[in-house]
Amino acid sequence: MAPTTNVLITGCSRGIGKSLLTTYLSRPDHVIIGTVRDVNPSLSASLDALPKGHNTRLVLLKLDSASTTDASALVETIKSTFRIGHLDIVIANAGISNYFGSARVTPPAEMLSHYTVNTLGPLLLFQATASLLDLGSNPRFVAISSGAGSISGMDNLKVENTAYGASKCALNFVTRKIHMENEGIIAFPINPGWLRTDLGNHAAAEAGMEQAPVPVEDGIRGVVDRIDKATREMTSGRFMSGQDTDTFLGW
Q1: pLDDT at 224
Q2: pTM (2 decimals)?
Q3: Spatial contact of 123 and 174, defined as CB atoms under 8 Å apart
Q4: CA–CA dist 196, 219 (Å, integer)
């Protein structure tokens, strides 16, 4: 029997997370732990109906990235209830983009909510899963970031997204620190591109565009390819692009 690859993906109910879930479920010999904020019968049935590769199964669990306790509770459930003893890939995908506004008018509450979900959430996820990653094969911690989090690329993105962009910039910092402090783990943030998700299309509308420029399938294909080929030497600690696989993004 082939060894099982264990993958944890957060924010799987729609958009990037659901596309990642669909991709990994199609592979053989995988256990995919997908998380959503609200596990309900309708959502569970629809996700469990996604095509699966041979000997692959889905474990759907609750994780609210705004909670400071859900990540540790999630890992305890993974270990005690499902007897999963290691993780090979953790993808911190869950995020929010609930407010658009300039730095002049962005309310403190919006800054705090975006930092809580987009920055603190992935950090708590890593802290909870680190010991399981240590036992994984070629363990990878991947943070789904955004071009909005690039300081050097700010001139090219004319969107009033102070709260979202700052939280993704901080996420990049946290992920690079994880890389520097954990020599046995491949850790990197990746910008999947401006995808046609609900979040991406909302941002496009704020920028005066009809829709985001990149089909979701194209973006996810690039992200998964980067994860598949990731190495400590060439990938870890860099800001990766899911679109241009030959270059790294500027911080």
Answers
A1: 96
A2: 0.94
A3: yes
A4: 9
